[in-house]
Amino acid sequence: MAKPKIRFKGYTTDWEQRKLNEIADKVSEKNKNNEFSEPFTNSAEQGIISQKDYFDREIVNNENLDGYYIVRNDDFIYNPRISVTAPVGPINRNRLGRNGVMSPLYTVFRTHDIDNLYLEFYFKTTKWHRFMKLNGDSGARFDRFTISSTQFMEMPIPYPTLEEQRKIGEYFDSLDHLITLYQRKYDEVKKLKKFMLQKMFPQNGQKVPEIRFAGFTEDWEQRKLGELVKEGILEAPLDGNHGEKHPTSDEYVDSGIPFLMASDIHNGEVNIHSCKYITKERAERLDKGFARNGDVLLTHKATIGETAILSNLMTEYAMLTPQVTYYRIKNEERLNREYLYSFFNSLDFQTELKTKAAQSTRPYIGITAQQNLKIILPAEIDEQRKIGLYFRNLDHLITLHQQKCDELKNIKKFMLQNMFV
Fold first, then answer.
1. Which of 83, 128, 242, 373 has its CA 20 to 30 A from that of 343?
2. DSSP run (H or E) holding 91
3. pLDDT range class, residue 286, cuts 50, 70, 90
């Protein structure tokens, strides 16, 4: 049998091939007298999970579990239900550390003479899909793959030495632990940010927030965005429809002036590198709807309330779709850019923004209405800066953990394709 493209140092022998029925036995052990009362399900995304947790309720009466297959810890389960992520159905291992039962619609098998981690990650590849498609059928039911259990157990399995199997399994298990670690860090910082966005800004008409940096005692002041514009503290479009309708497809070019749409702004980031471009001549025909580095962007149509500070702009300016408003700081001694961005994400502002939006198939809040939105800010610019910097650092951590998580997932995907045959 062929060798994998990527291999641990010191392993040179060819891999063997075994049939699944040579290294595993199909489980036919039935649940009797309701010995086991927890039904499992096999999710392509979540693996083996309690049915109650997956569906958020019991969908099978415990009295009807007689005749279900008993699934013991480390058993493998094939689910014939197909999806985008599992085009021939998923195979997962029971890692719950306890026994349960599975509907007879599933195929359950128990291994021997093979490393379970190795086999588990082999089934995360697509290399076994060809066998399934050659020997099964997805046409009878659009959501279910059909293959006999006898034919399924004939599946060929690549088989290196047990020592090499263990190394491969441990490598991918370590990757999964790292992915889980960074995903957990990402979730924790996101949760912290959500909490602090509620606690570090005054709520329900209060004049000071619940959580505040030491040394600041003055009451906060409430203004309207339009007042800050009129006083020259902010610059923003003043008419009801800045920008211009989307260019036609033949007006987009490979490089030039970025044309930012609402979909380019998400989770505090502006995706400059994947946005569309127009020529400078096309952009210069517009006398409004432009944004520059440092502007705070706010989506106000269809997708309402996404915010970001424009940065990494390689051109002098970018053009905005009418679905996005820019706010440009004109007096940095009165209003801090990062503070404004953070306040735009606060619970009170987001709630007011969406409450005052005109409701339709594509809800929106026009620029004129935006001018009447209230903004609450500390009188001292140093307090604004501290708050803005705090949330900017949280955003940096969120981005860092997400990037690391994505990087590890890409490594895993690449290695799955190249460390198996």
1. 242
2. strand 91-93
3. low
Domain extents for the chain?
A: 16-159, 162-211+380-421, 221-377
* 221-377 maps to CATH 3.50.50.60: no
CA 166 to chain centre: 31
What is the fold of 16-159? Adenine-n6-DNA-methyltransferase TaqI; Chain A, domain 2 (3.90.220)
The SS3 of residue 16 is strand
- Same fold? 162-211+380-421, 221-377: no
Cβ neighbourhood burial of 361 (10 Å; 0-12, 13-18, 19+): exposed
| Sequence-ordered list of residues with C-beta below 8 angstroms from that of 284, at least 6 positions apart, any chain | none
pTM check: above 0.90: no
Residue 216: both structure tokens together: 């600041």
| Beta-strand runs (E) in 371-414 | 374-377
> Worst-scoring range by mean pLDDT, 321-325, 378-382, 411-415?
321-325
- pLDDT of the residue at 275: 87
pLDDT at 242 over 50: no
* Residue whose tokens read 């006398």: 287
What's the rounded Cα separation, in Å, for the pair 87 and 78? Answer: 13
- Tokens representing 127 are 């290399």
Q: Is the dihedral of CA 225, 230, 233, 234 positive or negative?
A: positive
Alpha helices in 200-314 (DSSP H): 225-230, 280-284
Output the CA–CA distances (angstroms, integers) from residue 402 to 7, 182, 325, 390, 407, in the order listed. 28, 7, 27, 19, 8
Residue 267, Ramachandran bin (φ over 0: left; ψ between -120 and 50: alpha; else beta): left
Instruction: Say how far residue 69 (Cα) sits from the centre of its chain.
Output: 34
Q: Which fold has domain 162-211+380-421?
A: Helix Hairpins (1.10.287)
